[in-house]
Specification:
Layout: H1 12-21, E1 25-27, H2 34-38, E2 51-54, H3 58-71, E3 75-78, E4 92-95, E5 102-105, E6 110-114, H4 119-127, H5 143-148, H6 156-159, E7 166-172, E8 178-181, H7 187-196, E9 202-209, E10 215-224, H8 228-239, E11 246-253, E12 270-277, H9 281-292, E13 299-300, E14 303-306, H10 311-314, E15 324-330, H11 335-345, E16 355-360, E17 381-387, H12 394-398, H13 427-440
Parallel strand pairs: 2-4, 3-4
Antiparallel strand pairs: 1-2, 5-6, 6-9, 7-8, 7-9, 10-12, 10-13, 10-14, 11-12, 11-16, 15-17, 16-17
The chain binds flavin-adenine dinucleotide.
Length: 454
């Protein structure tokens, strides 16, 4: 395709070569389509790359990586844009949404996905065979970004992090080479990729195990915000003695509309307990009895459901919006922590965060992965906030006394979280990640996103 010369960090001759080499699309800043290509889910910030490669093949990704190396430009990747950190300028950005094939092998119980696949695709394909992936709360999140950052979802306490089930990773490393990495081919890189996120290359395809879960007893319990103190305390006490088949979380919501509670005033605080029980409805009902009695139920959607409807449990937003996402991992969530959270984010707190969420860890989320990986496994709960653009990190500061001294890599978005990868790992893990980084990306090309800082 003939192009008009542009003022760009990428010389015209290089662009011409790239356009010939790449089967997908190439966008420069003045091209029609450049802006639309950058549209992602989180509108908190927008990358301004020198060139975008809209990849359709793994070779396209390799060409983009070689270009970044040749020009010495940082290389970033965007699938859905749910997890943008600091918007990056003058980079080579690979967009992967065109590469979204998904295949399920029901006999081996393995899914193979391309770089841009989203969870709803895998959930639907696996459900057809009575299987489930370890997806997260939103079906629209990208499989690869989620899994490389750990992957904490509704089956977490029973089966662990999504990264724990990864069996094979196809990627392009900083030298522009295609690699297939398993526990047997390169133990260190396989370990680092599962937890260290986009710091070691661009994943072109991923293979991971599926679990035999066809149905859940799941859904949400909604209570008035005025009862936040009693409901949170009841949930806290209840989590102390639960089977691993039950994964739950609680959110303080201040959102424009609650689909499940149609007459709830927009923006008014509500408490939403989310339940995923991989057992019978009868047992689930018995387990939930104390929770249902914790306050005045505004809505109760917990029932027997197909796993394919798993995204209904959390009711995460589906339309793009701007937000900071921040978190700390909590050592414990005791009565005093509940009181501190209510003071920071409860009905009389003045808190404006649309969502403040506590997720229960433990079970397989706290045990070492069957094949060791870099996912941090400290603490008993995560506390995360989804905040409006420009708002400060108030709630987490007020719960600092309960912090396990770690953050969870996936629950970070927005420029102020760009350097937070350092807080996600203990010293030994971080040192080993840097070692692997030096070996596979010596010029630190993959530093867009939540980068490891040497
Ligand atoms: C509504 C919502 C719900 C969520 N629920 C959960 C949840 O339940 N559990 C959980 O653990 N997380 C959850 N997350 C966080 C989510 O997992 C991260 O934001 C994740 O990074 C999103 O990946 P993405 O590819 O969709 O986003 P993108 O913004 O497109 O990518 C984010 C980062 O992922 C990495 N990445 C993406 N693709 C590749 C690739 N091909 N190769 C290498 N690196 C890559 C890069 O570092 C990139 O910067 C949620 C986020 C939102 C907004």
């Amino acid at each position: 395709m003939a192009r008009q010369p542009q003022h760009s960090a990428v010389p015209d001759s290089v662009v011409d070569r790239l356009v010939t080499e790449v089967k997908g699309e190439v966008f420069l800043p003045d091209d029609p389509g450049y802006e639309a290509e950058l549209d992602g889910f989180n509108r908190i910030g927008r990358h301004r790359p020198a060139v975008i490669v809209g990849a359709v093949t793994a070779d396209d990704i390799a060409a983009a990586v070689r270009l970044g190396g040749e020009l010495g430009l940082p290389i970033g990747v965007q699938a859905t844009g749910h997890g943008i950190a600091a918007p990056a300028e003058n980079t080579v950005l690979v967009t992967t949404h065109r590469m979204n094939a998904v295949a399920v092998d029901p006999i081996a119980r393995i899914a193979r996905v391309e770089a841009g696949a989203q969870w709803h695709q895998v959930i639907a394909s696996a459900a057809y065979h009575g299987l489930a992936p370890l997806n997260g709360s939103s079906h629209l999140v990208g499989v690869v970004g989620y899994t490389l950052g750990g992957g904490l979802g509704p089956l977490g306490r029973l089966y662990g992090y999504a990264a724990d089930l990864v069996t094979r990773i196809h990627l392009v490393t900083a030298d522009g080479q295609h690699r297939t990495v398993t526990r047997d081919t390169d133990e260190d890189l396989f370990w680092a990729l599962r937890g260290g996120k986009g710091n070691f290359g661009i994943v072109t395809a991923l293979e991971f195990g599926l679990v035999p879960v066809a149905r859940l007893y799941g859904g949400g319990l909604y209570f008035p915000g005025a009862q936040a103190a009693t409901v949170l305390d009841a949930w806290r006490a209840w989590t102390a003695d639960l089977p691993e088949t039950l994964t739950s979380s609680v959110a303080l919501l201040r959102v424009p509309g609650l689909h499940q509670v149609p007459d709830h005033p927009p923006g008014e605080l509500a408490v939403h307990i989310r339940i995923a029980y991989a057992g019978t409805a009868e047992d689930g009902e018995r387990l939930l009895r104390p929770l249902r009695a914790a306050g005045t139920l505004l809505a109760d959607t917990v029932a027997d459901m197909p796993y394919s409807a798993v995204a209904d449990i959390h009711q995460d937003p589906t339309e793009p919006l701007p937000y900071h996402e921040r978190n700390i991992v909590l050592r414990e969530f005791d009565e005093d922590a509940v009181a501190a959270l209510v003071a920071a984010a409860g009905p009389d707190s003045g808190c404006g965060d649309p969502m403040v969420e506590v997720r229960h860890l433990g079970g397989a989320l706290s045990r070492p992965a069957p094949v060791p990986n870099a996912v941090a496994r400290s603490g008993e709960f995560t506390l995360s906030t989804l905040s409006l653009p420009g708002s400060d990190d108030v709630v987490l500061h007020r719960l600092a006394d309960w912090s396990a001294g770690r953050r969870y890599l996936n629950f970070l978005a927005g420029a102020d979280t760009a350097a937070a990868a350092r807080d996600c790992f203990d010293e030994a893990t971080y040192a080993r990640l840097l070692q692997v980084k030096r070996r596979h990306d010596p010029h630190n090309l993959f530093r867009v996103g939540h980068a490891l800082l040497p």
